[in-house]
Structures are given as structure tokens and as C-alpha cells.
Amino acid sequence: xxxxxxxxxxxxxxxxxxxxxxxxxxxxxxxxxxxxxxxxxxxxxxxxxxxxxxxxxxxxxxxxxxxxxxxxxxxxxxxxxxxxxxxxxxxxxxxxxxxxxxxxxxxxxxxxxxxxxxxxxxxxxxxxxxxxxxxxxxxxxxxxxxxxxxxxxxxxxxxxxxxxxxxxxxxxxxxxxxxxxxxxxxxxxxxxxxxxxxxxxxxxxxxxxxxxxxxxxxxxxxxxxxxxxxxxxxxxxxxxxxxxxxxxxxxxxxx
Length: 255
Description:
It is globular and about 50 Å long. The protein has helices at 47-50, 69-74, 85-91, 129-132, 157-167, 195-205, 225-234; strands spanning 2-8, 11-16, 19-23, 31-33, 37-39, 55-57, 80-83, 95-97, 103-107, 113-120, 136-141, 148-150, 172-176, 209-213, 249-252. It starts with a strand and ends with a strand. The protein is built from 7 helices and 15 strands. It is of the alpha/beta class. Strands 8-7-6-3-2-1-15 form a 7-stranded mixed beta sheet.
């Protein structure tokens, strides 16, 4: 079983394998942040309500919509932070850097372990990695557990196909959607999955459930909940969509 509570933007609390995981902490109030990014809503939960976190899954730390000032302040509260190698070097402390396809073991309270494998991600169109900087996604797995993919800020279906071919299918896909666009960069090309691409990624991965995050709360997120519902319906997979409102929790039970 997996529970996912949407805190806002790219930030969700995942309860999985007896551990509490937090994706890209965006915890500051509305306002303009580094890079001219404008946040329109604060987090649905304050840090006290978020509670203890075992692992932060941080796709990258160099964009303020993935790690804003309050999110950065929160990181030392977690037992461990997993992110890019470059990000871990800059963050220090409890941060561990992972290259794509490398893995770490996270101990469970029952004595088992969750394997976290870093997944490749491409934060823009082909050939822009040197401009957008390193980004990773994550694959969580373990004996008797659902396999959970957290995409990070990936905008490439070719990357998704590589993951599906190399890692096999997944049970749950937590997808950074929102069709992020910056008009002055890359002729407005998407920097994260659009709603249609999120639906297509779900099919490529064979995921039985997709949980979109990263689709509201910032002005450069151009497609929200309605677009996601329409895209999954148009692709005939509405039954796979688990869409949470801010502050809401969705529960995924798989056979």
C-alpha cells in the first residue's frame, strides 16, 4: 500500500514500506523566488504538520520551485536526503548524491530494506542538459513491495522508454507534470511532462496507478488538474489516475 498526500507543487508525503518520504520540498509562502519564479500558493501543511521524514527525494536543488528557502531549511530535519551528485556536494550534511542507475539501501523499521535507484531525467528538450543542470528521478522497490517511480522534473518520453526497458514496469508512477514553460527558454518547449505526456508515460511504464504532482502553485506550471483529467480520459486510462487536491491523501492498494 502507498499513501500520497499532496502538500503543494512538487511536494508530496509518501508513506511506503513503513517509512515517510518527502518529494522536492517547496514549503515557502507565495512570492517571487530565485530565477523569477512566482509561487501562487503556500504549502497545504506547515513543517510541524508534515512531521518526521525518513527520506527526502530531491530531484534537484538548483531551481527554487523544487527547493525553495523554507524547503532548504527543512532538509536537516530529515534522516536522509537523496539527490544529484552535484546537489549533494552543494548541500552537504545529510545529502547523498546518486548518479543515474546507482542505488542505495534504506533500512525499514521491520528489518528489511527499500532499494532506491536513481533514474535518469531530462529537464527540457534534447541537447539542453548542460543548460538545465543535472536532475534525477527515483525508483523505490523491495521484496513484497510495490515498485514506485518518482519522475523528478523529466520532460522526455524517450527517457521514460529507457526506464521501462531497463527497469521493467512499475506499479505506481508519481509524475511531475504541469507542462512547465518559460517563454524565453528553448522557444517555450516543455520542461516537465505535459498532461498528455503524463498519460503516455503511464502507459509506457505499464503503471497501474499514476499520481501527478508538480501541476499547481507556480505560474510557470501551465496545465493543471482539469488538463490531467482530460488527458487521461482521452487516452482511455482514467481508471489509473489518482489525482489529489492540495492537502488531500490518495491511497493506492495493489493486489
